[in-house]
Amino acid sequence: MKLYDMELSGNCYKIRLFCALLGLDCESVAVDLFKGEQKSAAFLQLNPRGQVPVLDDGGTVVWDSMAILVYLAKKYGGESWLPGEAEALARVMQWLALSENEILYGLARARVIKLFNRPGDLAQCQQLGKAGLAVLESRLANGSWLAGDGPTIADIACYPYVALAPEGDVALDDYPQVRQWIARIQALPGYVGMPGL
Amino acid sequence: MKLYDMELSGNCYKIRLFCALLGLDCESVAVDLFKGEQKSAAFLQLNPRGQVPVLDDGGTVVWDSMAILVYLAKKYGGESWLPGEAEALARVMQWLALSENEILYGLARARVIKLFNRPGDLAQCQQLGKAGLAVLESRLANGSWLAGDGPTIADIACYPYVALAPEGDVALDDYPQVRQWIARIQALPGYVGMPGL
Q1: Which of A59, A172, B57, B181 is deepest in the core (most CB within 10 A)?
Q2: What's the order of all strands across the beta sheet hosting A2-5?
Q3: Which of residues 45-104 of A touch B (CB under 8 A)?
Q4: Do A92 and A179 belong together in one domain?
Q5: What are B145-154's pLDDT values in tens digits?
Q6: What is the DSSP string of B10-38?
Q7: Looking at the structure, do residues B69 and B35 belong to the same domain, yes or no?
Q8: Whether residue B117 is found in the same domain as residue B146
Q9: B47 is in which domain, residue-wise?
Q10: How does the average pLDDT of chain A come out, rounded?
């Protein structure tokens, strides 16, 4: 299994983390985003969106972190990481949606503005990210994990950019439940970190 | 089944459309976003994110359009709308991800800036939206539907804000494959439209 990867990308890290938790061997192929390798003709053949991560599992190529998490969970992870029953599956999807919205366009974008000097409205991103953190905080006051009784890919999808939020100048002091959830994830057997965590 | 709904929201329309295609009865409960009803204490009990759509299916409450589509497909739609096999499911998820990113933060946001005078960088949203349209165009040059051989919830999730793109001053003239796909969706048995379509 090969992962087209970038070390500082939280979206790529989701896949590295999930592979580590599942005990899957995955070779990392570095893509230099600063040189624009993700927009090369060869890379666009793999992913027409020109983004990392991309997974190549013996010729089955899947792009997008959310789609890759679903693929790995379904193929290698089993029901506990991604349940098949309608309501339980919808609970996971709710938090995947949060990871693609408040977290990605709020917390992750605030981080790239601060860390990589990207253009964007920092205050607006921070505000959106905090709205997402407030939703997580209220959920985690009523359960240890986002969807169901144990960890699912919902937790894996939300975790990286939440834990990295301070790099976008969003402190986690006001979110004690979120900080405890971060600690629970970091205590999972097989856990690996990334720079900044 | 009850849908907390707003007529002009493309995200709400995804659910009305999918219910119509599945032949499901769904009562629409109007939420007045302009009056801020979605941020009331009662509504936040239903959805902590304070957004429509929210589905109440006999007491099972699901928020977020993507999660609701997955719920309805799994419970009432069957394998053709949302396959269970890992790779086929990942193909659907790839396009759900596009619907939450280039389409929602590009095309849909350009539309609310133009239509409802919301703040935001119109040119940047249009550019992101066009990047999404280009990806759709290349996919649809190689298949009639986004994921697999027939319509799935991937098509339902991407369709509304793509078809409404001209309301955000993004013309579809340069995307003939996308326009044919729009026509295919509009020809599905049970199809219903929304204002602007």
Answers
A1: B181
A2: A27-30, A2-5, A54-57, A60-63
A3: 48-49, 60, 62-68, 70-71, 74-75, 84-87, 89-91, 93-94, 96-98, 100-102, 104
A4: yes
A5: 999 999 999 9
A6: HHHHHHHHHHHHHT---EEEE--GGGTGG
A7: yes
A8: yes
A9: 2-77
A10: 97
